[in-house]
Amino acid sequence: MIARVRAGQPEAYAELVRAHTGIALRAAAALGAGPDAEDVVQQAFVKAYCALGRFRDGAAFRPWLLSIVANETRNTVRAAARRTTLAGREAALVGAEPVIPESADPAVATLETERRAALLAALEKLSEEHRLVVTYRYLLEMDERETAEALGWPRGTVKSRLNRALRRLQRLLPEGGAPA
Length: 180
What we know:
Elements: H1 2-6, H2 10-30, H3 37-50, H4 61-80, H5 86-96, H6 106-124, H7 128-139, H8 144-151, H9 155-172, H10 174-177
Helix pairs in contact: 2-3, 2-4, 2-5, 3-4, 4-8, 7-8, 7-9, 8-9
């Protein structure tokens, strides 16, 4: 696909955009872009297109794109000099992907909402590097190799930071790790 884009076929890039927009939006929302998530993703796709000449042949596009999304999210948040609140992040995550089916039992839905809020609150208390590794690995469902590529870290670093982050999350969550 990248070779087709480099060969001057813009429809190939449109296919890449369609295939990766959902995960890019979830990444931007999970990393704090809030209502700016769509703008962040659009800018990330523009930057990715402009940087395709530096894209390494044979590398996976998704982790490369998500690292651009993460950097663009960071830049947007810093430039705006504001931090999105926990409620804003939760709303962005809920808006990005439905979590609880409408047909769910109200009691189950309430419990899931409470668990999500507890998890997001605990994630907020992690250091940025721990929050990033947990977000990429579990919220964005990237495997270990993709997470390492997206963050620009060795796989061993991903493993160790993820282990430390999960242990910290377990201590931060109610009832020793099981959200209420």
